[in-house]
Amino acid sequence: MSKLLEVKDLKVSFDTYNGEVQAVRGVSFDLDKGETLAIVGESGSGKSVTSMALMKLLAGQGFIKEGQVLLEGVDLVKKSEKEMQKIRGKDISMVFQDPMTSLNPTMKIGNQIMEGLIKHQNMNRENAKKRAIELLNQVGIPQPEVRMNQYPHQFSGGMRQRVVIAIALACNPKVLIADEPTTALDVTIQAQILELMKEIQKEVDSAIIFITHDLGVVANVADKVAVMYAGKIIEMGTVDDIFYNPKHPYTWGLLGSMPTPDSTDEELYAIPGTPPNMLKPPVGDAFAPRNEFALEIDTVMEPPMFKVSDTHYAATWLLHPDAPNIEPPETVKQRMQGFANTGRKDGDK
Amino acid sequence: MTREKVLEVKDLKKHFSAGKDKVIKAVDGITFDIYKGETFGLVGESGSGKSTAGRTIIRLYDATSGEVKFNGEDVHGRKSRDQLRKFNRKMQMIFQDPHSSLNPRMTVLDIIAEGIDVHKLAKNDAERKKRVEELLEVVGLNKEHATRFPHEFSGGQRQRIGIARALAVEPEFIIADEPISALDVSIQAQVVNLLKRLQRDRGLTYLFIAHDLSMVKYISDRIGVMYMGHLVELADSDELYENPVHPYTKSLLSAIPLPDPRYERERVRIAYDPTAHDTSEEPEFREIRPNHWVRCTSKEFEQYKKELEKK
Ligand SMILES: Nc1ncnc2c1ncn2[C@@H]1O[C@H](COP(=O)(O)OP(=O)(O)OP(=O)(O)O)[C@@H](O)[C@H]1O
Ligand SMILES: Nc1ncnc2c1ncn2[C@@H]1O[C@H](COP(=O)(O)OP(=O)(O)OP(=O)(O)O)[C@@H](O)[C@H]1O
Ligand SMILES: [Mg+2]
Ligand SMILES: [Mg+2]
């Protein structure tokens, strides 16, 4: 029982007037202390819902249908709301995708940061204030004393996001879930925040779950990567497995969509088609209708997770021993050689 | 070659008060032009005033001082209702946050038709509906989507609804404030391809605010870099990437994360030290090469010039 966090076959649905939306359809992964898992994947694939389920913060008609979330061996799915309140913000904390929804618009920024410190760390107001200013400073907010007394709408988009990060880091959580924490930030402040997260991670040996669309950020922070599509993890591996040896055609499409530093006028590659309807998840491989490499079996039967190596798994029939030998598209193959080298001119010493 | 200027921004300032005696100089004197049919990218530090600049240009905020001319006409001068309405139609904005910029209680049809109604662009309900359906198609959605509500769409689809809404009034100029940040890469590619196609077909002009520098470079003809309320550098996108001059621009370019773990493990970032500048005089915006501008003192100007020549 050495794992810090184990998620086993997690299924999450929403009851809506149109029926049951099966947002997460059996997700499993584990995480050691000090490890960072990045979750990438299509918009609507269930990344945020997965992380909300770990915190037991599902909105509206959402519910955990099946599965376990073991934190140091204890199943959070079985915990009461009252018990969860003691765990949230302390053992597990979360940076939400939309900073505006997690900040109280009528409360001063300073008080919002101090709240958790007073509640979970038993600090008095004076110490909490000192620590809050220090945290604002760490996330790169200039004039923190002045900013403490302002309200969220007086901050820029990226500054709000940094406040949310400061709040999440305040209590040195065992598990930090960060949902798109740096999307609204410029790259220099992003780099600064990523370094800060790594530093705190080293200090307290916390595990990080990092959800992002930015594959550059994934390459920078992740030890492991999970690629999600239609409520499932369809490929999982070390960061090197996923970037240098991707096996699932959806992962190929993702890597192929990024402009390289010297992309010119040609159209960017975009995965054709639209995401599946989670009210009626497709039979067979959910990605098949959009997959130019789809095999006949894909429309009938869902592929299991095939093992590529001890660290690397992917759910595609292309990995079946009887499947035809299909190579990733040329552009993706080039990128697998090392994206940084594709047409970089000078400027990189 | 003289190109037609769509937008002229001169020494534009927007200050906010933050409690007594405290002023936040969100935009503190920026000057640039945007030409017809081009995409002008605006990048820079978070909090440097990009959104405020966009919002002041489109008159969501009153300027503290300075001038904005659109097609040669002063935007911030006194205007009749009619003139304002005409102006509002020609200039449109796509907002940073697709989640909160669409009214959750309105159907997609009504959201997109809002501008059509305000500007009375449709003679009757049937024409109104037809226009909306055409717009849905333009942005890669379909007519069935018209009766649905925003929460029934994914982030990328919602962003395309925002684009359809902006296009509904047939604008000439669109300010897009981080239109793609919240989208996954494949949908980003879709939206960017769409914006480019519309530009080709309709001769649109864009002010494109974003953080993803690879995408900004891909989409923009020229790029302006903002830092603390000022434009610190402005050049053609290739020139800016190949010959960055201002130390903040250099730092920004050195920090672009690339999807290449080996590269990321060894990356060396150039840190920017804002206190390392020459302070013997107020910096000015100076042209260091044709169409390449940088904010600096005369001493720094000489030094930057030498560095450029050495290249
Ligand atoms: N409150 C809700 N009611 C009904 N369906 C919901 C609700 N919240 C989420 N969903 C659905 O659950 C699925 C997964 O959504 P989720 O927010 O996890 O996507 P995501 O992977 O985080 O996408 P993005 O990258 O756009 O943030 C989507 O199909 C979404 O429509
Ligand atoms: N309504 C407001 N009232 C007071 N201050 C404001 C207001 N809007 C913005 N500011 C301040 O103006 C400055 C610039 O903000 P702005 O939103 O323009 O930045 P930005 O460059 O768009 O940043 P980001 O990349 O984070 O979105 C910030 O210091 C912000 O706190
Ligand atoms: Mg999400
Ligand atoms: Mg902004």
Would you write up a description of this structure?
The complex is a heterodimer of chains A (about 350) and B (about 300). Chain A has helices spanning about 45-55, 80-85, 100, 110-120, 125-140, 145-150, 155-170, 185-205, 215-220, 240-245, 250-255, 330-335, and strands at about 5-15, 20-30, 35-40, 60-70, 75, 90-95, 175-180, 205-210, 225-230, 230-240, 305, 315. Chain A is of the alpha/beta class. Chain A folds into 2 domains: about 5-220, P-loop containing nucleotide triphosphate hydrolases (Rossmann fold), CATH 3.40.50.300; about 240-340, no CATH class. In chain A, strand 9 and strand 10 form a beta hairpin. In chain A, about 50% of the residues are buried. Chain B has about 300 residues and is an alpha/beta fold. Chain B has 11 helices and 12 strands. In chain B, the strands form 2 sheets. An 8-stranded mixed sheet of chain B has the order 6-7-8-3-9-10-12-11, with helices on both faces. A 4-stranded antiparallel sheet of chain B has the order 2-1-4-5. In chain B, a hairpin with a 2-residue loop joins strand 11 (about 285-290) and strand 12 (about 290-295). Chain B is globular and about 65 Å long. Chain B starts with a strand and ends with a helix. The mean pLDDT of chain B is about 90. The interface between A and B is large, with 65 and 60 residues. The structure holds adenosine-5'-triphosphate (2 copies) and magnesium ion (MG) (2 copies).
Small-molecule binders here are: adenosine-5'-triphosphate, magnesium ion
Q: Give the C-level CATH assignment of chain B.
A: Alpha Beta
SS-derived structural category of chain B: alpha/beta
Strand residue content of chain B: 25-35%
CATH superfamily of chain B: P-loop containing nucleotide triphosphate hydrolases
Largest sheet of chain A: 8 strands, mixed
Gross CATH architecture of chain B = 3-Layer(aba) Sandwich
Q: What is the distance, rounded to the nearest whole angstrom, between the alpha carbons of the first and last residues of chain A?
A: 44 Å
What is the H level of CATH, i.e. the homologous superfamily of the largest domain in chain A? P-loop containing nucleotide triphosphate hydrolases
**Beta content of chain A:** 15-25%
Query: What is the chains' assembly state?
Result: heterodimer
User: Which protein chains are joined by the largest interface, and how many residues does each one contribute?
Assistant: A-B, 65 and 60 residues
- In CATH terms, what is the fold-level topology of the largest domain in chain A? Rossmann fold
Shape of chain B: globular
Radius of gyration of chain B: 21 Å
Count of helix runs of chain B: 11
Fraction of helical residues of chain B: 25-40%
Number of helices of chain A: 12
